[in-house]
Design a protein that fits this description.
569 residues; alpha/beta; Rossmann fold; Alpha-Beta Plaits; TIM Barrel; 3 domains; eight-stranded mixed beta barrel; 22 helices; 19 strands; 48% helix; binds ligand C2E; binds magnesium ion
């Protein structure tokens, strides 16, 4: 056991010598006694020397003693302080102890027995405090610092950054779909998943970057740097890589997305409160997209959220006022480089705000239930548009229509879709409903029943954003799903990230083994296209060929004359 290091703070060295003598009679190797004459020296001293206990002279001006104690307590000073003085009345002793002293020893009582008792008492107190701090400061499940602990550290980091002209980057990270993991797989799996997330995050950190668990499925990471934006981006890349591997909890493999938002002190968060709020706003913005998405806070984001709230009443009338339109994004067959189909994507022609994209109103429509009638309108309109395309001689064999998980909660789904299709002249085999894995996983039995019934009508199905939801390969075998659409977050990395390339190759192989087609979403570069072609991906949908365009533009693009006269890329 190492020696106990004691610092005596007293104008005269006499008491220090006395304590030295007493303790050294016992066993000189057990104690090391240091002395300094003023509180000022004492304030510096313990930080340089690993001091275990301080004896502080009570006569060193009482107010300054209390200040010292107050300060020590405020800073959670980790060293116990025993006051040394003349006999004092009990109530004064109590007030000193309340102010932060561990104990009070009158000089005339200074003998080996009392000294050792005081040392033992102070050490016990310290150990107990440390244990409580540990319990309060560290999350039991993950071992990561808790919210309160994180706040304290963050305030210190902001202070230090200010004096060294650095920045503090704060990231708020939320696990996507965590409630569903809890609800469908149970809390034990939920807990194990949170532990695994924390382990992966910890792995992604570089020295000096601090992780904390803020709530059930929310973490924060802070870093101090001269270029916080840059360091954050690097960190995000590492998190994405680590997060992408499936979570092997119990017998079911789960893939989880996460949403990350970041604000930077002092640029986009001037104090703790603002920094946290802005990083949270950015995280909520990132939530609108699937996969491991990330956003920096910028001034417009607050208004975006306020705008979304303001949209709610208008959304209710938008359908009646025919303010929605469908845009079409071509699907290209990689062998022939021809347009063979399209995905119908909804837009809102807002009377004052211009064209709004689905990320801005679909979550709201899902929340309010308006997605149900809106979804039927999309089916009807897509059928009508397809009819018109075929009349114009377009060689289109598939139109993808997105179905929200929420639409499966509508009891009339089957008869309504049947009725809508029977009112048009399209061959149901040309319609492909795009489902997300999560929508299927939410209520497997019911969704399974619905899509089996719909496929009897000839309708086809694809799994959208494949790889970002519940990776249940069982769905692929059990359900009548014809196509996998690989999420664009994987396609983005195929040319420079070995893991992404591996994942995409594996998905293509898997799909082909199960006799399904594969569509790569979000291909933007010639290199990505080359990779996909080399790996026998069937189709591509991405900006490299075309973004979603209006119905008229799509018809022009896909017209037989156009196909003969020009290469679409
Ligand atoms: P999604 O079904 O995965 O649709 C693909 C999204 O990726 C579209 O965004 C498309 O514009 C975008 N995209 C395609 N290629 C690229 C690319 O190369 N680069 C980039 N950066 N993006 C690309 P959009 O139109 O904003 O739609 C977002 C999501 O909104 C859709 O994701 C879909 O989940 C949902 N959505 C769209 N229309 C409907 C609808 O009618 N009903 C329902 N329930 N959801 C819809
Ligand atoms: Mg889709
Ligand atoms: Mg998609």
């Amino acid at each position: 056991m190492s020696a106990i290091s004691i610092l005596v703070v007293d104008p005269s060295p006499v008491t220090s010598h006395f304590i030295h003598e007493l303790l050294h009679c016992e066993d000189p190797s057990l104690y090391q006694i240091n002395w300094c004459s003023s509180i000022k020296d004492a304030l510096n001293e313990p930080r340089d020397n690993p001091t275990d206990l301080i004896f502080l002279d009570h006569n060193l001006s009482q107010t300054s003693n209390k200040n010292y104690l107050g300060k020590a307590r405020q800073n959670r000073f980790p060293i116990p302080i025993v006051l040394l003085g003349n006999s004092v009345p009990c109530d004064e002793e109590r007030s000193l102890i309340e102010a932060g002293a561990s104990d009070y020893l009158a000089r005339e009582q200074l003998n080996l027995y009392n000294l050792k008792r005081s040392i033992r008492y102070a050490r016990d107190m310290k150990e107990r405090e440390q244990r409580i701090t540990e319990l309060l400061d560290y999350d039991e499940l993950t071992g990561a610092p808790t919210r309160q602990n994180f706040y304290r550290r963050l305030i210190r980091r902001m202070d230090n950054a200010k004096s060294s002209s650095q920045q503090v980057g704060l990231m708020v990270l939320n696990i996507d779909g965590f409630k569903r993991v809890n609800n469908s797989l149970g809390h034990r799996v939920g807990d194990m998943t949170v532990q695994e997330v924390a382990t992966r995050l910890q792995k992604a950190l570089k020295p000096g970057q601090q992780l904390a668990r803020m709530s059930e499925d929310q973490f924060t990471i802070s870093l101090v740097s001269h270029n916080a934006q840059n360091d954050m981006e690097t960190l995000v890349d590492r998190i994405r890589q680590l997060h992408r591997m499936p979570y092997n909890q119990l017998e079911r493999k789960v893939m989880l997305g996460c949403s990350m938002g970041c604000a930077i002190y002092p640029e986009t968060g001037r104090d703790l409160d603002e920094l946290l709020r802005h990083a949270g706003t950015a995280m909520h913005q990132a939530k609108k997209e699937r996969g491991c998405t990330f956003r920096f806070y910028s001034e417009g984001l607050d208004t975006d959220i306020a705008n979304q709230i303001a949209l709610e009443p208008e959304l209710l009338t938008a359908l009646r006022r025919q303010q929605f339109v469908l845009h079409y994004q071509p699907r290209i067959d990689l062998d022939s480089e021809r347009i063979v189909g399209a995905e119908a994507l909804i837009r809102w022609k807002h009377p004052t705000r211009g064209l709004l994209y689905p990320g801005e109103f679909i979550p709201l429509a899902e929340k309010t239930g308006l997605i149900v009638p809106m979804g039927y309108w999309v089916v009807y309109k897509a059928c009508k548009d397809l009819e018109a395309m075929l009349e114009q001689g377009l060689d289109i064999n598939r139109i993808g229509i997105n179905l929200s998980f929420r639409q499966f909660q509508d009891e009339t789904l089957l008869p309504t879709i049947q009725r809508l299709i029977s009112h048009t002249n399209v061959d149901p085999r040309c319609l492909e409903f795009e489902l997300t894995e999560t929508a299927v996983a939410l209520n497997e039995q019911h969704v399974g029943h619905c899509i089996r019934e719909l496929s009897r009508l000839g309708l086809t199905f694809s799994l959208d954003d494949f790889g970002t939801g519940y990776s249940s390969f069982a769905h692929l075998q059990k359900l009548p799903i014809d196509t996998l659409k690989i999420d664009r977050s994987f396609i983005r990395g195929v040319t420079d990230n070995a893991d992404d390339a591996e994942i995409v190759r594996a998905i293509i192989n898997l799909a082909h083994n199960l006799r399904k087609d594969v569509i790569a979403e979000g291909a933007e570069t010639a290199e990505q296209i080359a990779f996909l072609r080399e790996n026998q991906c069937d189709q591509v949908q991405g900006y490299y060929y075309s973004p979603p365009v209006s119905f008229e533009d799509f018809c022009n693009m896909a017209s037989p004359e156009q196909a003969q006269s020009a290469d679409i890329a």
